[in-house]
Amino acid sequence: MSKDTTEIVIEGKKLRLTNLEKPMWPGDGITKAGLIKYYADMADILLPYLRDRLFVMSRYPDGIDGEMFYQKDCPDYAPDWLNTFPVYSPDAGKTVNYILCNDLPTLLWLANQACIELHIWLARVPRIDCPDIAVFDLDPFPPAGFKDTLEIALLIKEALEQFGLHGYPKTSGATGLHIFVPVKPEYTYKEVRNSVEFICRQIHSVFPQKTTLERLVSDRTGKVYLDYLQNTRGKTMTFHYSLRPIPGAPVSAPLTWDEVKKGRVDPADFRIDTIRDRLADVGDLYSDLLQPGQSLKSLVEMT
């Protein structure tokens, strides 16, 4: 067996790791071995969030400079110990067997498939029609920048608090910002989406010069796009601590609201080689997402 391939046994499950020297982030000298090591090192933090969520593979077989593709269905060649959950897809006209990333062997198998990002459903099985996370996806369009996004995030925080809700901000890993709101898994996607849309429209009505709800990219210039449509069945979000296929190997990193308020955050500071130090300094800022979710009753009643 070449040094580019190795076989390991983890938790009684055999894994064959291949093409370990293949560049994933060529400009940064990070290979597939580095990708796999990152997720192995982060597994203790990641797995509680990934557990029982439908995983969509975003694969970069030739690294971030090559072509990528999404894969929902578990491939036939996958090991038989992988856990999957069947979901009928009307669009595909068939049942799709989604992978559930519930343990370390599965996480490393996915990394070996060159899955750089963690694209996950907002609901857990078996209640896949009732999300337990509501998402505000804020995306700035130049000349608007990340600092503009932070300002809008603070307005959303204030709006959420009016309904007794708490949101948790994180960098997208690129130029945007996400706010995750843990909710009780008893609302439909439509109810959750309408609730997020209601707040987005309230923000936009007060600050139309800084925000936009336009779906056409060409109409978003210079504003922060308030995307509530991610709260839709079948859509996935890049979860916290996910690597991103961008030079520098940035990570989607949780933030404190104090950091958002001070506005001194640079998403490029959170990378594959710095996130563990970040965790040592501030801990896991998203741990409350593992607690029982919040009620949306008062907000649902407004929509």
Defining traits:
DNA primase, PRIM domain; 2 domains; 6-stranded antiparallel sheet; 15 strands
Characterization of the model:
- The chain is α+β, with helices and mostly antiparallel strands.
- It folds into two domains: 111 residues, DNA primase, PRIM domain, CATH 3.90.920.10; 168 residues, Alpha-Beta Complex (DNA primase, PRIM domain).
- 27% of the residues lie in helices and 23% in strands.
- The chain has seven helices and 15 strands.
- Strands 5, 6, 7, 8, 9 and 15 form a six-stranded antiparallel beta sheet that branches.
- Strand 3 and strand 4 form a beta hairpin.
- Helix 1 packs across helix 2.
- The protein is globular.
- The model has no long low-confidence stretch (mean pLDDT 95).
Q: Regarding quaternary structure, how should these chains be classified?
A: single chain
Coarse morphology:
globular
Radius of gyration: 19 Å
Q: For this structure, what is the CATH homologous superfamily of the largest domain?
A: DNA primase, PRIM domain
Order of helices and strands: EEEEHEEEEHEEHEEHEEEHHH
CATH architecture of the largest domain: Alpha-Beta Complex
CATH topology of the largest domain: DNA primase, PRIM domain
Report the β-strand fraction as a percent range.
15-25%
Number of domains: 2
Give the fraction of residues assigned to helices. 25-40%
Main beta sheet strand tally, sense and closure: 6 strands, antiparallel
Give the terminus-to-terminus CA distance: 61 Å
CATH class of the largest domain: Alpha Beta
Number-wise, the strands total 15
Summarize model confidence as the mean pLDDT. Answer: 95
Q: What structural class should be given to the helix and strand makeup?
A: alpha+beta
- As residue ranges, the low-confidence spans are none
The number of helical runs is: 7
